[in-house]
Structure formats: C-alpha cells, structure tokens
Specification:
The protein contains 8 helices and 5 strands, in the order βαβααβααβααβα. It has a single domain, classed as Rossmann fold, CATH 3.40.50.300. The protein has a 5-stranded parallel β-sheet, with helices on both faces. Helix 1 packs across helix 8. The protein is globular. The two termini are about 25 Å apart. Helix content is about 55%, strand content about 10%. The relative contact order is 0.19. The structure holds thymidine-5'-diphosphate.
C-alpha cells in the first residue's frame, strides 16, 4: 500500500454486514464537523463509480456467473478508481475522508476464497488509511439485526459466510496492528449511543497523539 502526505485524514469504518457501520459513519461525520470543526466527505466501497455500479449488481444477484477471483479484481479496480477520483483529491484539498469499507473488506470477504498474498498484491496501490475503526459484532447478532430490519438480503448475508468473514477480520487486524497500523476495535454490540461514545473517545485519543507528534 502507498502512504500519503496530505493534510486531510483518511478514516475507514469496517465490520461484517449488520454491524452498524452506516449509522456510526454519520455520527463520526457529525463529531468531526461539529466538535473538531473539520471539513469532511463521506464515501463508501463499492463506490458509486463505474466499476462500483457493476459490483452492486453482482452483490444483489442481478448479475451472476462471475468467478470469485473476478469479483476480487473488480473490488480492487473500483478502489483504484475511487482513490484517484474521490479520496485523493479530497485529501489534497485538506478534507477528511470517511469511508464505509475499504481494503480490509476485500481481505476479509474475498479472503474466504482467495489467497491473502494475491489480494494484497492486487490492492498494493490502495492508499493507506490513517485510522480504521473495526466495529466488532458477532455474526449471530449481526444476522439477527439484518433479518429483522430488511426485506431483501445480499449474497454475503448468511451465518456461515459471516462467521468466516468475522474470523478473517480478527486475523487481518491483528496482523496489521502488529505492523503498526492504526486499527481500533470498538464493541459494536453496545447500544448505538454507547458505540458512538466509544468512537468519540478513541478519536480524541488519536488526535491527541497526532498533535503530540507534530508539536
Ligand atoms: P454494504 O457495505 O452493506 O453496502 P450497502 O449498505 O449499500 O448494501 O455492502 C457491501 C458488501 O460488499 C458487503 O457485503 C461487503 C462486500 N464487500 C466485499 O466483499 N469486498 C470489498 O472489498 C468491499 C468494499 C465490500
């Protein structure tokens, strides 16, 4: 992965389906803007770009017959497009980019079928996040949340799949934390308000540590 020397911070939220990322990402945006007076943009992967549109059709089952390795390549291609057209320009303008899922999702989801080294290789040009929050929710709990709140489900929303993805996330984050990456685990089984409070506390610690580094 490449690292960047931009002013804005690149913050990613990760977790298995039903872990509440979409709710918490809005809270994170609110905190950064109202409490830190920062300019932010919200974005997500799969992105809304041309490759992201194809991926969404695969996820919903409207486009079928694609091999798992092809889907992994599509996610990697979408990420390059997303980096070049959305993330990097915003960071260069000093904006803080908050992204719903990123590279870690490829390692956790596509890592069920594909080799980790290959996934890291095809994603090697992905810009490195400054900070990642992993919203940890056990698969049994997340699936209950999904089935009680939605009419339709996507291809990865099954218990045994979510279990594999969950275990992959735990392994991946342990590895990246050992490599010195800023990955912060949050207990996502708490109430939504308590999860937000945890994120807020960790964000404060992160900015304090960053200020110490620059002073
Ligand atoms: P999700 O983030 O829930 O988006 P939406 O709320 O719009 O449905 O769904 C995206 C799905 O894509 C989710 O199951 C995780 C999966 N995914 C991957 O398998 N690999 C990736 O690299 C990314 C970014 C997502």
């Amino acid at each position: 992965m490449q690292s960047q020397q931009n002013k804005g911070k690149f913050i990613v939220l990760e977790g298995i389906d039903g872990s509440g990322i979409s709710t918490q990402i809005l809270e994170l945006k609110r905190i950064l803007e109202s409490e830190y007076d920062l300019q932010t943009i919200l974005t997500k992967e799969p992105s809304t770009g041309p490759v992201g549109v194809i991926i969404r059709q695969v996820l919903s089952g409207r486009l079928s017959g694609l091999e798992d390795s092809c889907l992994a390549l599509l996610f990697a291609a979408d990420r390059v497009d997303h980096n070049r057209n959305v993330i990097i320009p915003a960071l260069q303008q000093g904006k803080h980019v908050i992204c719903d899922r990123y590279l870690w999702s490829s390692l956790a989801y596509q890592g069920r079928k594909e080799d980790t080294e290959w996934l890291e290789e095809i994603n090697k040009y992905a810009y490195k996040p400054d900070l990642t929050f992993f919203i940890r929710v056990r698969p049994e709990i997340s699936l209950k949340r999904i089935t009680s709140s939605r009419l339709s489900t996507e291809i990865f929303e099954e218990l045994n799949i979510l279990r594999q993805v969950y275990n992959n996330y735990i392994k991946i984050f342990k590895k990246w934390q050992d490599l010195g990456e800023q990955v912060i685990e949050i207990d996502g089984e708490l109430s939504p308000e308590a999860v937000t409070a945890e994120i807020k506390k960790e964000l404060q610690n992160y900015f304090l540590a960053e200020n110490k580094k620059t002073n």
